[in-house]
Amino acid sequence: MKFQESTRVYIAGCGGMLGRAMHEYFSTRTTVKATDIDLNVNWLSYADVRDYNSINDSISEFVPDVILNLAALTDLEYCELNPENAWLTNALGAENIALIAARLNVPLVYISTAGIVDGKQEIYNDFGRHEPLSIYGKAKYEGELAVCGLSAKHFVFRAGWMMGGGPSIDKKFINKIYKQIKAGVDTLYIVDDKLGTPTYTKSFARSIFKVAETELYGVYNQVCGGSASRYEVAVEFVRLLGLEKKLKVEKVGSERFALEYFAPRPESEKLENLKLRARGIDFMPHWMDALTEYAEEYKADMNG
Description:
Layout: E1 8-12, H1 17-26, E2 31-36, E3 44-46, H2 52-62, E4 66-69, H3 76-81, H4 83-104, E5 108-113, E6 123-124, H5 135-150, E7 154-159, E8 161-163, H6 173-182, E9 187-191, E10 195-196, E11 198-200, H7 201-214, E12 218-221, E13 228-229, H8 230-240, E14 248-252, E15 270-271, H9 274-278, H10 287-303
Parallel strand pairs: 1-2, 1-4, 2-3, 4-5, 5-7, 6-15, 7-12, 8-11, 9-14
Antiparallel strand pairs: 10-13
Helix pairs in contact: 1-7, 2-4, 4-5, 8-10
């Protein structure tokens, strides 16, 4: 499959931080229909992956050449408190779209997560069965299994610690740090007992575009190169902002935030892109290079 302007790409769940990057990249190269239940920008139309009829009508009327399913509830604490919605969105929603992709006989791209691992080993490659710890991870893993079982032409891309979107829409770690900086704190308290692989949304979108063209279907880890603790990421981000002499970054254990972040999390969710690398299609940069690019958005915000 060679993407071109006439290629019709349907993107479900396109309203979040990854959706912005995917829409930005794909809409300038293909014909895109982007949907979500939260219509926060004017290029989105409504469709609910939890409602088979809603999503089926929306996809079918577009007659896509490929479907991308980004729809997910990614807040771990929300998922623990609202398990039914987590299962319906992250698992049933994936199953609904996989059924539609199979019926239409079109390739399906599903976005999964490093959150499916149990953290009992340090590094995880693309292979093996998993025992997720959280409701979020369990529902996403069931989504993976549904996609693999129902859609013959499937790509499953597992992301790590997602970063992207900038100050306005990033809901993850980098923006949480930045909000503290903007609030005037002089010390950041960052856990050093959680390990992972940062994943930049813009790099992720570019790589999906290139890998999907190969038609080498399957399940792939797709994260930035290298790995880090949350503390190491925070130190690098502060350095990139030029604040290392003004701001102290202090190591703490996860127990400090146990009340706020009560959902179970793996000690290590480091992924390695074994299959992408072996097939010569690993297009992801090192996380430090990706963070350097991303930090420019925050520097502009600070100086603006």
